[in-house]
Amino acid sequence: MSQPTPLVQPLLLQFQQLFFLSKMVGVLPQNLDKFRYKNVLEKSRNGMLYMLGVLSIYVVLYNLLIYSFGEEDRTLKASQSTLTFVIGLFLTYIGLIMMATDQLTALFNQGQLGELYERIRVVDERLYREECLLDNSCIAKRIRIMLIMTFIFEISILVATYINLVDYTQWLSLLWIVSAVPTFVNTLDKIWFAVSLYALKERFEAINATLEDLVMEHEKYKAWLTGDDATTATVGNRTADSQQSSPPPQYDSNLEYLYKELGGIDTGSLRNSGGKNHNKVAPIAHSMNSFGETIPTPHKPQRMNTNPLINMAHESELNDAAKVEIKLNNLCQVHDEICEIGKAMNGLWSYPILSLMAYGFLIFTAQLYFLYCATQSQSIPSLFRSAKNPFITVIVLVYTSGKCIYLIYLSWKTSLASKRTGISLHKCGVVADDNLLYEIVNHLSLKLLNHSVDFSACGFFTLDMETLYGVSGGITSYLIILIQFNLAAQQAKDAIQSFNSFNDTAGFVGAATEMDNNSSTLYDMITTTMMTPTY
How does the UniProt record describe the way this protein sits in the membrane (predicted)? Predict the structure, then answer.
C-alpha cells in the first residue's frame, strides 16, 4: 500500500548537506538511514554511542594539546601577574565546555528535535491550504553560505596561527588542529538553530503577507466601486489618442437584469455609493448560470487588455464576513502553533545559546586583553597565542562576535515578525469598515496577545538588540578594568624589583664600608704596637 503524496516538501529536505556533516563530526546522534530515505530525525542507539565516542576522543586530544603546548603556561605564573594566569587557566577550557554542552544537549533532545520538524511540516500543510506561499529553496542556499563562511574562518585562523606562531618543525605541533574543533562543532550546532529560526520567521512573514494581500484586494475593490481603479486609469492612458478621436461609448441605463443574472449584485447599493460609471457589467467568479451549474473562474490574462470597453470587477474576501472569519481564525491558529514551535525550539537550544553567549563575551574580552599584554611584551597563555598577531586577532573577533550577533539579530527579527501579525490583522478591520468584521478582529487580537514569542538564554536575558547593546558596554567596562589591574600589577612588580635592586646595592656598599673599617682598625692596632716603648 503506497503512502499518500505529501502536500508540501518537508523542511528537512533542505538540510541534507548540513546533516551529513553534523553526523560525521558528532553534532547530532539521529539515524542516518531514516534521514536519507524519509527526511525525518529519529533516535539512534548507534548514533548515540558514536557521538559519545567522538566526544571522548575530543576531550583526550584537547587535554593532550594543552599538555604539549603548556610549557609557556608553566612559566606564566612566575613571570606575570596572578590575574593573567587565572584568566588564561579558566578560558583554556571554556571552549571544551561549550562543545560538550552542545553535544550533550543534542544527545538528550534527539527525540524532541524530530518532533519539532514534524510540527513544522504540519504547519506548512496548513499554510498551503490557506494559500500562503513559502519558498524553502532559500534555506538550502543560506546553509551553503554559512558552511562556506565557517570553513573560511576556521581555516584562516588555524593556518595563520600555525604558520606564524607555532613551531611546526616538531611533530607534536600537529595537535594544534584540535584547537579548532570546539568552535567548529559549536558553529555547526548554531547553524541548525539559526536556519530553523529563519524558517519560522519566513512563516510568520507569509501569514503577514496573506493578511496584507486581503487588505490590498479590498482597497482595489473599493476603488473599483468608486470608479477610481488604477488599472482602468492605466488602460485609459494607453488609449488616450483613440478616446480623443472618437466619442465615448454609450451604455444602456437599464442593466439590472444582467447584474442579477451574473452575480446577484444589488445595483441600488452601487448607485448609493456615489461612484461613477455605475452601469458596469461585472463577471463575478463562481457565479451560477440558469441551469444551476457553476461557471468556472476565468484565467488571469497574461497581457493587459487595452480595450476600454471591458471593465472587470475586483473581488474581496473581506466582503464575506462568514468566509473571512474562517480564514482569519485558521491563520491565527497557525500563528499560535508557530509561536509554540518557537518556544519549544528556544527550550531545546537554551543551554547551548547560554554557553555561546558566555563564550563570546569572555573570549572577546580576553582576546583584546591578551592583545594588550602582547603589545607590552608580556607572556600570554599558549592557546591564546593568536593575540600576538593583530590581524589574526581581528579574524577571531569577527568570527566569534558574528555568531553571537547574528543569532541575537535573527531572534529579534523573528519576534518582531510574530508581533506584526496583530497589526496586519487590524488593517483588515480598518479597511473593511464593517462592525461584524471589527468584532472578529478584536476577538482574534486578544488571542494574538498571548501568542507572542521571545527568545532567551535560559531566562537570564532576552535575545534582542537591547541585550547586544548591554553586552557591548560590559565588554568595554571589563576590558578597562583588566587593563587597570594589569597596570597596577606591573607597577607593583617594578616597585618590588627596584626595592630589591636598592637592597642589593645597599648591601654591597655596606659590606665595602665594613671592610674599610676593619682595615682601619687593624692599621691602628699595628701602629700602636710599634710605637709603644719597650723596657
Answer: Multi-pass membrane protein
